[in-house]
């Protein structure tokens, strides 16, 4: 009976962990987290620097000046001789800086702009550090709860075990040293368990302070998957480029570049004035006036002979460039160290998991042996049970340490927190304090206790691909696309580009190689309404066959039947389907469509477009639902995805400037859009929506990062 009780107690721990009451996810706390004092201070400083930058900008233009004079004068005149009078004067005019004066004010503006930009990234760093503190506290809170549950399980077990030991010791069937050993082992384990569990209330209070969220009385922390194979250091370059420290230093470099060149006239302070002058004399009635234009300059004599071209500003530029490289190298070293520490911690955790399983097995074998050799196996079974408790205790601590190491990787990853490109595709689930053997890895892209959704794609339409195809601008454009968080590019080609057949193929191969090296998918984006007509359909087939030798990841067709007129008859829909079927037969790549959502509405009468597409094997569709009404967007998208579960849908949103504000997000800051995307992923990801696509790259780039302070 005692053995059965032990097993039930151990099993109950796992059940408690598997069914948490009122679970509070880390992701939910991060999304609802209020700005802390450091973040608020950084925001206030950013607003102050923005005001200073505006002041410096105004100083580069025309300025109003004025003045007044008064005095007793004695002047010599040809006829009157010496004339004494009291005079008064006033002047009001405009001044414009020139040469060195203008250069100095430009430098002041650049310094102010750079300071504002650096402060912006300093604020991002403060936000990242607050998120890190919240993550770390949440993990410690989770650990305290695990120890509290473990204590509840082993305290009655320890009481039973020690009662047996003392009973044996009283009958002298157990040595005193053996009694002391077991009492010391159980005492140490219970003390450690209770000490760590006692931190729960303190950590809960700290978590509420950091997040600004009041937690329910029965709130429970959720465990997370531990990534099994994070990417190697060289694969994290895109994440490092997004780091606020790198962005800070890039702003310094860009500022230095703007004033990099020194010229000989930059040492000459000069300005142009245009003023209206007024004069009064006590000996002459009336007012004298005059419009005066003036040019003033001043230059130190020493600088006339000691000018050195490109000295001061050029050296600042080189210093900023070297500091950018140094910052990148520091982050790279830190990342390499963090990866090594995480991998070591993960190996120790998996080893500790095996140790728990082994301890359980030894305990089971000792229990079985006790039925045969009751006297000889008594001490062995007692030690096996305390060893199992020790292993469970150490396993919780090991998991916590590995999870904390993972937060360092997330800190270095910046905002790419759930990107499987960096953290890998598989993760180790928390098996429960009794380590029931559920140690098989699971796919990170599947939902787990932490609320992760399945893979979520972020694509963008690149209709103007000239910068991507040009060798001199390709890497910079790919950097920008990667930093924006896109994993798929729908690449459009203009008629002029298609006319240069040989050169186009070579540039496309180079682009595809560069994009694939960054784990970016590139689809061929083709769209021309005339291809829907039977007599023009062959033009699409010929174009596909012409580019068939290139390693595109897919063919994305933008064939909008509405562009040939409204209403759309069934005949045109049949032509659309026939064109898609022809393209699928000719295409060496997987095919996907972009279409208005009306053709996939669950309640639509008439020709069943989804049925026909599924029959021909086309199951990937991007739904154009251009609306800034989030409730309407979610309702329409989830209704379609739920009604057609065999198809893979993505939503297309617009940032185009030529659409009405009700249909385009063009004025919404990127920070707000990123938050909304997280909400969309949460609300639509479980219904079958697999990603979002933005129309188009040129307009998306024009969206500001955030509202101007």
From TrEMBL:
Residues 1-23 form the signal peptide. Gene3D superfamilies: Outer membrane efflux proteins (OEP). GO terms for molecular function: efflux transmembrane transporter activity. The keyword Transport does not apply. Keywords: Coiled coil, Signal. The keyword NADP does not apply. Residues 442-451 have a biased composition (Polar residues). This is Outer membrane protein TolC. It comes from Vreelandella halophila.
């Amino acid at each position: 009976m005692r053995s059965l009780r032990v097993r039930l107690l151990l099993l109950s721990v796992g059940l408690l962990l598997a069914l948490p009451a009122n679970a509070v996810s880390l992701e939910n706390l991060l999304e609802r987290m209020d700005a802390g004092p450091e973040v608020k201070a950084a925001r206030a400083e950013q607003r102050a620097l923005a005001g200073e930058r505006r002041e410096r900008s105004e100083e580069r233009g025309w300025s109003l000046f004025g003045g007044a004079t008064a005095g007793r004068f004695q002047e010599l005149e040809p006829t009157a001789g010496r004339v004494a009078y009291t005079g008064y004067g006033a002047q009001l005019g405009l001044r414009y800086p020139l040469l060195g004066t203008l250069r100095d004010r430009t430098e002041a503006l650049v310094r102010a702009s750079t300071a504002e930009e650096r402060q912006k990234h300093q604020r991002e760093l403060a936000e990242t550090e607050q998120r890190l503190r919240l993550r770390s506290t949440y993990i410690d809170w989770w650990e305290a709860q695990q120890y509290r549950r473990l204590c509840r399980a082993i305290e009655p077990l320890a009481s039973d075990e020690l009662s047996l030991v003392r009973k044996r010791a009283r009958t002298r069937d157990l040595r005193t040293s053996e009694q002391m050993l077991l009492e010391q082992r159980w005492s140490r384990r219970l003390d450690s368990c209770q000490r760590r569990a006692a931190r729960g209330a303190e950590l809960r209070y700290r978590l509420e302070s950091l997040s600004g969220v009041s937690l329910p009385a029965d709130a429970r922390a959720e465990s997370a998957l531990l990534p099994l194979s994070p990417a190697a250091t060289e694969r994290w370059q895109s994440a490092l480029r997004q780091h606020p420290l790198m962005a800070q230093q890039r702003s310094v470099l860009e500022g230095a570049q703007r004033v990099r060149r020194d010229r000989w006239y930059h040492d000459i302070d000069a300005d142009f004035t245009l003023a209206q002058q007024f004069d009064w004399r006590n000996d002459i009635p009336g007012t004298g006036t005059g419009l005066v234009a003036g040019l003033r300059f001043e230059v130190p004599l020493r600088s006339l002979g000691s000018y050195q071209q490109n000295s001061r500003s050029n050296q600042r530029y080189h210093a900023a460039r070297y500091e950018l490289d140094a910052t990148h190298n520091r982050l790279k070293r830190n990342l390499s160290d963090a990866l090594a520490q995480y991998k070591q911690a993960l190996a120790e955790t998996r080893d500790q998991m095996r140790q728990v399983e082994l301890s359980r097995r030894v305990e089971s074998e000792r229990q079985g042996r006790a039925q045969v050799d009751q006297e000889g196996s008594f001490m062995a079974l007692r030690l096996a049970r305390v060893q199992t408790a020790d292993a469970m205790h150490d396993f919780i601590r090991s998991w916590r340490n590995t999870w904390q190491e993972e937060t360092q990787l997330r800190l270095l990853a910046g905002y790419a927190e759930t990107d499987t490109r960096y953290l890998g595709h598989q993760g180790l689930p928390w098996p429960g304090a009794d380590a029931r053997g559920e140690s098989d890895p699971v796919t990170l892209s599947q939902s787990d206790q932490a609320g992760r959704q399945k893979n979520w794609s972020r694509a963008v339409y690149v209709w103007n691909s000239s910068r991507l195809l040009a060798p001199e601008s390709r890497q910079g454009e790919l950097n920008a696309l990667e930093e924006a968080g896109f994993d798929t590019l729908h690449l459009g080609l203009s008629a002029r580009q298609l006319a240069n057949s040989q050169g186009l193929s070579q540039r496309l191969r180079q682009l595809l190689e560069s994009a694939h090296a960054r784990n970016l998918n590139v689809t061929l984006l083709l769209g021309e309404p005339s291809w829907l007509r039977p007599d023009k359909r062959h033009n699409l087939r010929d174009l596909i066959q012409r580019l068939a030798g290139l390693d595109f990841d897919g063919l994305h067709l933008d064939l909008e039947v509405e562009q040939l007129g409204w209403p759309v008859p069934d005949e045109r829909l049949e032509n659309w389907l026939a064109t898609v079927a022809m393209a699928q037969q000719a295409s060496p790549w997987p095919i996907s469509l972009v279409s208005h959502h009306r053709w996939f509405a669950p309640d639509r009468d008439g020709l069943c477009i989804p049925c026909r597409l599924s029959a021909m094997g086309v199951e990937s569709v991007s739904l154009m639902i251009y609306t800034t009404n989030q409730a309407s967007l979610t309702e329409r998208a989830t209704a379609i995805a739920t009604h057609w579960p065999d198809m893979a849908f993505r939503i297309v949103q617009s940032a185009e400037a030529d659409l009405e504000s009700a249909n385009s997000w063009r004025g919404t800051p990127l920070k707000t859009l990123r938050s909304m995307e997280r909400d969309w992923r949460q609300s639509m990801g479980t219904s079958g929506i697999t990603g979002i696509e933005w129309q188009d790259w040129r307009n998306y780039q024009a969206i500001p990062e955030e509202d101007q302070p």
